[in-house]
Amino acid sequence: MILDQFRLDDRVAVVTGAGRGLGAAIALGFAEAGADVVIAARTETDLRQVAEQVAATGRRALVVVADLADPDATAALADAAVEQFGRLDIAVNNVGGALPKPLLDTSPDDLAEAFAFNVATAHALVRAATPKMLATAGGGSIINITSTMGRLPGRAFAAYATAKAALAHYTRTAATDLSPRIRVNAIAPGSILTSALAVVADNEQMRTAMEQATPLRRLGEPGDIAAAALYLASPAGSFLTGKVLEVDGGLVAPNLTIPLPDL
């Protein structure tokens, strides 16, 4: 049956930034599809709540509290998966970010920090996970979470958008290097209703404006991204590699504008 292609029975996934938001939704979606998960973030209480939800599905979760801005801490998750569950099949790079800042206030250090947090940490996990995935008969699947801002220009997003664009192209180059045993794809979310977007979601005027600027006339839910991740991680997505899925409601221009004066 076609639905069987979306199963992850007895596979093992690492999901970074899994304490809440997209990472938590992805980890829980994988568990519902039959996978055990290594979930990592900085806040233990958040991770414990996600682990309880995973356990309710009948699967297992290993909680790892770590500062994932440190590439070494991120890389260590691959060993943790094998030590706890005996294998590693899927890795989701979901950490990243950078605060908006006007272009002329964005320093070279800001760019370097954004690249390190969004790209170098992902690369660290890819390097560590690859040998573990190659040890399994089916190879593996790596999923990088980029952003619609990696392809759509917007004011004040020079550091963030550049780093996410780099992660998208990293995905394509890594897919070429790791084929055919390991598939590497990415998801570029649009505006998703997580805590990071709470300032917008709680402002009716701002939220309505964003919804009207989105072709599907709504903001995304974490489950929208989890469903895309399940597709990429499962046999259903076995003929995809080096691709970026744009899960953004059809955006062709940014739906959030940060007001800045003209120069």
What's the short version?
With 263 residues, this protein is of the alpha/beta class.
Name the descriptors.
SDR_fam; NAD(P)-bd_dom_sf; Sc_DH/Rdtase_CS; 7-stranded parallel sheet; about 260 residues; 8 helices; about 45% helix; 7 strands; SDR family oxidoreductase; Rossmann fold; oxidoreductase
CATH C-level: Alpha Beta
CATH fold topology: Rossmann fold
**Sheet/helix structural class:** alpha/beta
Q: What are the low-pLDDT stretches, counting only 5+ consecutive residues below 50?
A: none
Beta strands, count = 7
Radius of gyration, whole Å: 18 Å
Portion of residues within helices: 40-55%
Strand order of the largest sheet: 3-2-1-4-5-6-7
Q: Mind telling me which CATH architecture this is? A: 3-Layer(aba) Sandwich
N-to-C span: 59 Å
Q: If helices are DSSP runs of H or I spanning 4 or more residues, what is the number of helices? A: 8
What is the residue-averaged pLDDT? 95
Tell me the series of helices and strands, N- to C-terminal. EHEHEHEHEHEHHHE
Shape: globular
Number of domains: 1
- The CATH superfamily turns out to be NAD(P)-binding Rossmann-like Domain
β-strand percent reads 5-15%
- Major sheet size, sense and barrel closure: 7 strands, parallel
Give a description of the structure.
The chain is α/β, with parallel strands linked by helices and 263 residues long. It has a single domain (2-246), classed as 3-Layer(aba) Sandwich (Rossmann fold), CATH 3.40.50.720. 43% of the residues lie in helices and 14% in strands. It has eight helices and seven strands, in the order βαβαβαβαβαβαααβ. It has helices spanning 21-32, 44-56, 71-85, 108-134, 158-178, 198-201, 204-212, 222-233; strands at 12-16, 36-41, 61-65, 90-93, 140-145, 182-189, 244-247. Residues 11-190 form the Ketoreductase domain. This is SDR family oxidoreductase. Keywords: Oxidoreductase. It comes from Nocardia halotolerans.
